[in-house]
Design a protein that fits this description.
alpha+beta; FAD/NAD(P)-binding domain; Elongation Factor Tu (Ef-tu), domain 3; 2 domains; six-stranded mixed β-sheet
């Protein structure tokens, strides 16, 4: 097999993958179309340019992003190392000077003899071992090519995301389980609102600050994916006849139909996460936390993911990907980054890390790695590659994805035990594969 891997896309995932390959003495052709052809989101031609926030989120091990970064450190991540060297004050979060971060990372990759950076657009996936990491703004030509390969119903060009909350933060004294018009236990958790509570919530939605829509996001949005604040602007009762309609629901505490209701749909197999059905929004993150806490039963809500509505090209990964990030129909084609449905900077980089390691192993005729599902990265990859999953939506790393503990625990104590298990299992996994070849998981200094 040819000892070169072609990476399409020089963002966080592509850059991390290139580094991992170079550390394993595999030649890399890294294709990045900028600055020859740019997007409306990017401002420079630098690799791993951060186009939105400059934050990689929490450093705390008891936060999903913090645990994932620690796993990446232990696997020799370039993104985390360069990020920490270019950090700016941000409390407990890892935030970076975005220009210095991109410049430092670009310089580091350019200095590697094994990495050749090619500044041109790729319109079709080439032969050989390939990592496709073109991100949420994949060029139209390559998107068309992907559609022809995957089928148009498996490639999405907009992203309407409802918030996901943790089950343990829902007040079960308020919530009741029911499905519309069905008897028995029901598949949904329902949060009932009185007329007064509904009016207060609608007022807060209408007054909330929203994220400005950028030009590249001004795409056709289907009626069923309108932000809740846009629905509310059509009239104060529109939410009660839309995503908050109480039709077919009876509150067991009153024996009556509530004035309005919020439905929560189970998001994972274990029932630790629930999706707020129909609550896609352009409200800012602080406003979402404030406004949604006005819903009875969510006063102390903990979000695993906040809502959004934006352009985001991503594939139906549960249908197409293995947990090794290989395409099910072509073992030498890997996907990494946001195009896989992982949401967030650090998640994108982490997927690139594993794609780089596994592409290197494939070049050497070795079997790609599977990460323990008890780790943050392993659980995230299990989520995006679960072939039984329906209505797939992008996901940030969070503790709700991790398997349950053998001994029940709650809150911070639960997360601390999950962290301990994750890092132990990661170290055991690394030890099991040894560090005696060019494919050592962490290159010693």
């Amino acid at each position: 097999m040819e000892r070169v891997v072609r990476i399409l896309g020089g963002g966080l995932a592509g850059s991390e993958a290139a580094w991992q390959l170079a550390q394993r003495d595999v030649s890399v052709e890294l294709y990045e179309m900028r600055p020859r052809k740019t997007t409306e989101a990017h401002a420079t031609g630098g690799l791993a340019e951060l186009v939105c926030s400059n934050s990689f989120r929490s450093q705390s091990l008891t936060a999903g992003a913090g645990l994932l970064k620690e796993e990446m450190r232990r696997l020799g991540s370039l993104i985390v190392r360069v990020g920490e060297r270019n950090r700016v004050p941000a409390g407990s979060a890892l935030a970076v000077d975005r220009e210095r971060f991109s410049q430092a990372l670009t310089t580091e990759l350019q200095s590697l003899p094994a990495v050749r950076i090619i500044r041109e657009e790729v319109q079709e996936i080439p032969p050989g071992v390939v990592i496709l990491a073109t991100g949420p703004l994949t060029s139209p030509a390559l998107s068309d090519h992907l559609s022809s390969l995957l089928g148009s119903r498996h490639l999405y060009f907009y992203d309407a995301i409802s918030p996901i909350v943790t089950a343990e933060s829902i007040d079960m004294e308020v919530a009741f389980r029911a499905s519309r018009y069905e008897e028995g236990r029901g598949d949904y958790l329902n949060l009932p609102l009185t007329r007064v509570e509904y009016d207060r919530f609608v007022g807060a939605v209408l007054a909330a600050n929203v994220v400005p829509t950028r030009s590249f996001e001004r795409l056709l949005v289907f009626e069923g994916c309108q932000p809740i604040e846009e629905i509310a602007r059509r009239g104060r009762e529109t939410l009660a006849f839309g995503p908050m309609r109480p039709t077919g629901l009876i509150d067991p505490r009153t024996g009556k139909r509530p004035y309005a209701a919020v439905q929560l749909r189970q998001e994972d197999h274990e029932g630790t996460l629930y999706n707020m059905v129909g609550f896609q929004t352009k409200m800012t993150y602080p406003e979402q936390r404030r406004v949604f806490s006005l819903i009875p039963g969510l006063e102390r809500v903990e979000f695993a993911r906040l809502g959004s509505l934006h352009r985001n090209t991503y594939i139906n990964s549960p249908h197409h990907l293995l947990p090794t990030l290989q395409w099910r129909r072509r073992s030498d084609l890997f996907f990494a980054g946001q195009i896989t449905g992982v949401e967030g900077y650090i998640e994108s980089a982490a997927s690139g890390l594993l794609a780089g390691i596994n592409a290197a192993r494939l070049v050497e005729g070795m079997k790609p790695f599977l990460l323990p599902v008890t780790t943050a990265l392993g659980s995230l990859l299990a989520y995006i590659s679960d072939s039984s999953r329906q209505d797939f939506q992008p996901m940030n790393v969070n503790f709700g994805l991790l398997p349950p503990l053998p001994t029940p625990a709650r809150g911070k104590a639960k997360r601390e035990l999950m962290v301990e298990r994750a890092l132990k299992d990661l170290e055991d996994w690394k030890t099991g594969f040894g560090r005696t070849t060019a494919f050592e998981l962490v290159r010693e200094a």
